[in-house]
Every structure is written in structure tokens, then in C-alpha cells.
Design goal:
Largest sheet: none
Strand content: under 5%
Protein name: Oligodendrocyte transcription factor 4
Pfam families: HLH
Number of strands: 0
Shape: elongated
Organism: Erpetoichthys calabaricus (Rope fish)
Number of helices: 8
GO molecular function, one term: E-box binding
InterPro entries: bHLH_dom, bHLH_transcription_factors, HLH_DNA-bd_sf
Length: about 240
Amino acid sequence: MDSDAGSTSSRASSPELVEGATRFFSKKMFETYKQKQTLQSGDRQGKTEKAKSKRELTEDDLHDLRLKVNSRERKRMHDLNQAMDGLREVMPYAQGPSVRKLSKISTLLLARNYILMLSNSLEEMKKLVSDVYGAGHPNHLSRCASIGPAPPQVAMHHLTPSLHSLMGTATSPTSNSPQSPPSSGFVSFRPPIQGLLKDVNPSLHINGSYRHFPGMPCPCALCQPLSTSGTSISCLSVNK
DNA sequence: TAGGCCATCTGGTCCT
DNA sequence: AGGACCAGATGGCCTA
């Protein structure tokens, strides 16, 4: 039997199962399967070489074949679920043992909206950067723009409201806009910013090795807002 | 208890 | 021929 046949599932939902090596194959299903095989082999008698070779399979061979196919299919679905978990991990929503995980459909819909939101934010930031750099600060441009666009933090202020509007139900599970995923999995909203920024060392930018993340504010001193009031776009303006 | 979600089995189809 | 992919069927678990 395939080594994967013993892989665990988060749910024990199988019907009555045969013991031991055939534990993933229900007795009822196997009986049904045997009956079908008998009928089919009778119907197709002499039709094709393929059918003939199948008829020659013993009951045990058919059973083993079925187990093998089932095992592969289980493994395929487990891989798919792993990928789905990987997607959940990078989605901006509350995660933890006390939080019900997103359903598959919610995960996919949220991922779609998240990608759309990021694309929109990126476009907005590109516009802002081009506007600002159009009347640019020569010194700042020489240090930051050559590495890549250092998005103004004003864009980040737009980010969270955009996410909330796109996800709709993140904080108010009763509303359901067409853009919003089903509300069942949502408890609260966790912006992804902290996680993306946590490994960034602000000092790196000064010596030119800081890597700008698309959509992320530059943490270097040059790019910090001058004050906490108003928009931080001033860090990129010629007035700085 | 109904409905949502899920895991699993299964047969068909397509691809290598 | 064997494997991957897909969709339908089935039944279990959980929640409102």
C-alpha cells in the first residue's frame, strides 16, 4: 500500500472502514465496487483488450488497485489543502488556535480581493511617487530612487481602509458586499504590515543595502515623516 | 435540525 | 498503462 495511506486527517469522517491495510476502504463501498466490476466485466466481455486484461485481475488485485488510486487521490487532496494553508498564512486575517480558520472558498475570495487591493495600492503609490519625484528632491532621489520606489507612508494610511472596504466583513460580519468573502471565517482584521516589516533593519538603508519592499514605507531616517500630524508624504517632498 | 463545510471514494477524461 | 485532474456522491462534524 502507498505509504501515504496512513496519513492523518483533521477529520475522522470516513464511513465504517475495513481494518488493517484496507482501513481507508469501507466495506460497503467495496461490496458495491465489486458488484459494479462484475457487471461491467460482463457487459464489456470481448470488447477490448484493455477490458480483457481488467477481467483477468483477481478480486484482491482490484482491491489493491482501488486502494492505490484512493491513496493517491487522498495525497493529492492533502497537498491541495497544504497549499490552501500556505495561502491562509499570508492572508490578512486573524489567526490562532481560538480563531476558526477560513473556509476554502473564503480563502480564495479573500486572496483575490487582497491581490486586487495590493494592485490598486501599488498603482496609487506609483502615481504618488511619480508626482512627487517629478518635482523631486535631488539628494533624496539619488539615495532612494535608484534602489527602487520608496513608497510614501501616506499610501500605507490608505491601505487599511482599503482592505476593510474590500473585505467588507472583516469587522462587521453582517455586511456582505459582492467583493466580500463569506463572513463565517472572519473575526478580526490583521494588517500584514508588521509581519512584512519585522525583519527590516532601518540602519541598512543608509549604507545603501536596504531592500525596498513594494508597498512598504521606507524605514530610514530620510524617509520618516517630519511630524506625526498630516501625511508622511512630506518626507519625499522638496520642502523637507 | 437544517445548512455549511469538509474528507473520502469513485469513475471518467486527459496527458505523458 | 499509469498517473493527474476533475466532479459527483456520500456521510460526518459543527454551528446557528
